[in-house]
Amino acid sequence: MPDLRTFRPGGSRIVAYGVAVLMVVLTVVIGVALPSYVEFTPFELATLAAILVAVLVLLHAVGRSVVRVTDDGIEVVNGYRTRRVAWSQVKGFAMNDGAPWPTMVYGDDERMILFAIQRSDGAYADDAVAYLRGRVT
């Protein structure tokens, strides 16, 4: 059976979705708690809703980041962009001291950040990078 893995951010994913829930709850609580004489124009309500949606979309982009390893290659989802790279194109992985996430080098010296593997996750990130380096042929 092949050793295939999926890597997702730990702490940053929890923070992203936690903040999203908190923002929605606070928006509802503040909206209900406002005195009756406070009124918003439709334009103000639309602006507040647009800001809330934009922040939720950005937080979801952080939370949905993933790195999937298959026998054919590696699939990287950073935010709302998905890329697939064959193992034959992958040259290596780097995670320098102090770097917040690893970088994959592939193709003609192209580089891609692997946002799903966060340095703040500690040993999990180190193990993930070691595993990915071991898969490069």
TL;DR?
It is built from three helices and seven strands; from the N terminus they run E-H-H-E-E-E-E-E-E-H.
Helix content: 40-55%
CATH architecture: Roll
Strand content: 15-25%
Q: List SSEs in N-to-C order.
A: EHHEEEEEEH
Overall body shape: elongated
First and last CA, distance? 19 Å
What is the top-level CATH class?
Mainly Beta
Tally of discrete structural domains: 1
Q: Which stretches of 5+ consecutive residues score pLDDT under 50?
A: none
Oligomer: single chain
Largest sheet composition = 4 strands, antiparallel
Q: Decide which structural class fits the backbone.
A: alpha+beta
Query: What strand order characterises the main sheet?
Result: 1-2-3-4
What is the gyration radius calculated from CA atoms?
20 Å
Name the average pLDDT: 92
Q: Helical segment tally?
A: 3
Give the tally of β-strands. 7
CATH topology: PH-domain like
Written overview of the protein:
This protein is an alpha+beta fold and 137 residues long. It has one domain (1-137): PH-domain like. 42% of the residues lie in helices and 23% in strands. The chain contains 3 helices and 7 strands; from the N terminus they run βααββββββα. It has helices spanning 11-33, 42-63, 123-135, and strands at residues 6-7, 66-69, 73-78, 81-86, 90-94, 103-106, 110-113. The strands form 2 sheets. Strands 1-2-3-4 form a 4-stranded antiparallel sheet, with no helix packed on it. A 3-stranded antiparallel sheet has the order 5-6-7, covered by helices on one side. Helix 1 runs antiparallel to helix 2 (42-63). The mean pLDDT is 92.
